[in-house]
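Issue: copy button drops trailing tokens. Both records pasted manually instead:
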Amino acid sequence: MFKPLPIFVGLRYTRTKRRNRFISFISFVSIIGIVLGITALITVVSVMNGFTKEVRERILGVASHVVVSSAAHGLDNWHALPQRLSAYPEVVGVAPFVSAEGMLSANGAVSGTLIRGIDPALEVQVSDVGSKMLVGDMHSLRAGDFNIVLGAELANTLGLRVGDKVTLVTPQAAVTPVGIMPRLKRFTVSGVFEIGVREFDGALAMVHLDDAAKLFLAPGQISGIRLQLHDIFDAPYMTHKLVNDLPLGYLVNDWTRQYSNFFQALRTEKAVMFIIVALVVVVAVFNIVSTLVMAVEDKRADIAILRTLGASPGTIMKIFVVQGTMIGSIGTLIGVVCGILLASNVETIVPAIESMLNTKFMPPDVYYISELPSEVQAKDVISAAVLSFCASVVATLYPAWRASRTQPAEALRYE
């Protein structure tokens, strides 16, 4: 016998057929419970990771990684600034923009909108809108043509298609012989895009940079400059760097600040979901307690014999710790494998189930994302496995301690 006694006996108790089949059944149920709990935990957390990643990519496909603007109303004499910002190695794209609020009116419908003036040649460096066009082309925005590109939901709300006319009402007022009147301008719809985020599809409209500057009474002036970075998670570092490098009067903001509440809510939701599903794992793991308690009662005579042969209470305790830990480890290992397989294929499995049931679990008119994305991360798998293993060890302590308290004479009295 080359193994230490507690490991040898504990493993033997685990793999041998018991006289009491009910104990074997409880052990099997414990393993199945751990497998299902770990599988659910890894799958849920992976779906949350995928959801966060998908939403972040969609938002940052339109929003900016970093924005440089002015503490005043807008940026004047800005033409040398893009070249200066492009010199940073973290920056891969630079584009000026004009941002203002307005109201679009067409076909008897009115909708508030965010107007963004862009340079189509530079916009492709900092956003994915050009690749999300349903109809038309971003390059249809030419200075002086007064064309406009709308989000898909905004276009549907106003009943517009490419080639239709839409009236833009700006907050600035014009003084006329009949009094102060709002400034109006007719635009031609030249494209429709769909990002998949209601915030942009239902409220964003894009026009040429020069047209926006003229319309909002700020020719030659821009609202700011948008930066695209190699790594989106370098945004806080880049913001800090620009604040120190640029002269006073500039404001620097990044996506981690602009959308901090939203992504913090997602992180909180992920943590809460992890805790809730982890409780299922813990409940399954603590079935080991009942398994070992019955095993201890079943093995009282064996324990007494080991004690009379010189085994210490600590040795007896270690035997049952090994047995319970082995049950938990088997369930954890199988659960991790099943969880990774399910989480890696959830994007295929869920559409198949939806097709079979002829339903949609996540309607696109309700949720940001109508599919279930998934991203398996090693740290989540390790966390789930460590949680299950540690809970398995803790669950063995009371039954093992109870076994170690067995008195040989008392146990053998009726044998």
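Record 2 (pasted manually too):
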Amino acid sequence: MNSAAGLLRSWSIFDIAGKEKILASLEAQTSDPGFWSDQQKAQGIMRQIGALRDIIAMWDDLSRNAGELADVIDAALAENDESLKEDIGKEIDKLTAKFDRIELQLMLDGPYDSRDAIIAIHAGAGGTESQDWAQMLMRMFLRWAERHKFKAEVLDTSPGDEAGIKSATIEIGGNFVYGNLKSEHGVHRLVRLSPFDADHARHTSFALVEVMPEAEEKTDLQINPDDIRIDTFRSSGPGGQHMQKTSSAVRITHIPTGLVVSCQSERSQHQNKESALKVLYARLLEIEIEKHEAEKAKIKGKRIDAGWGNQIRSYVLHPYKMVKDHRTEYETNDPGAVLDGEIDDFMNAYLRSKVGEEK
């Protein structure tokens, strides 16, 4: 990679000058006497300021390093010093690697990319096969979070009939978690020899993964208390006699949209209510995002829906080993590592495929 050309390309595509203007505007808001009157909104703005400062600082550091290296190269050429060529080559490699890391960071510039994420996993048709596949995907995301030292919590699960899970809801918290995980939104397909089939026949299973940014109450949207109905019921999942004897599980219905969210993983009714509300806010925010995407689709053309009709990735364990993303064509022949949480390369390929697209 030509470092200078790459820097100029990223300066244009990622609009560093525009980010500096946005940062100045946000910082000006903090001097308003009433800035902290709405704590949640103020905290959201401070998070944006922090993220922009980090991006701009990384860019400035990279630009300075590139300038210093250019001076060294010019001096070596002027003096025709062959002994410096090897050292310069090593420095160029270091700068290129640093550039690649920063370029990926710059790609995470969506309005919700810096937020935590809520993942909902749903087993497809196929009974135990798909339910086991859904649980494998849940483990994959939990292992990814563990590898990055992100906080992960299983908010709710619905156990399968014989094995696996029918559905699960997970919350993962950390820097730019949603920006990375949004690449996982869609249908995931598994091909393998069935461990549940006496004949060990080859089976194809599907699971739907939904990835939603965690919503900030009041800042993103507001729910009229009269628009929700909260019901309690006895948990049907594991948890011992205590959960079975008390109505700790919570079901929340958003009346205007018909959305229903339930949570029964915690012993406390209050905890389940908080988790259910968190998921409800995320789903309502996702509806708003989809409306925005639909408006863009009218201008840009047909948009492929990440629903049951369109698989985004295939995981093949038999008759050969391969994981392939159908949107980016990125693939690997090590599905074991992928299912153990090594999915960053797929995320990065997805981010790179979106460079230059209209926001």
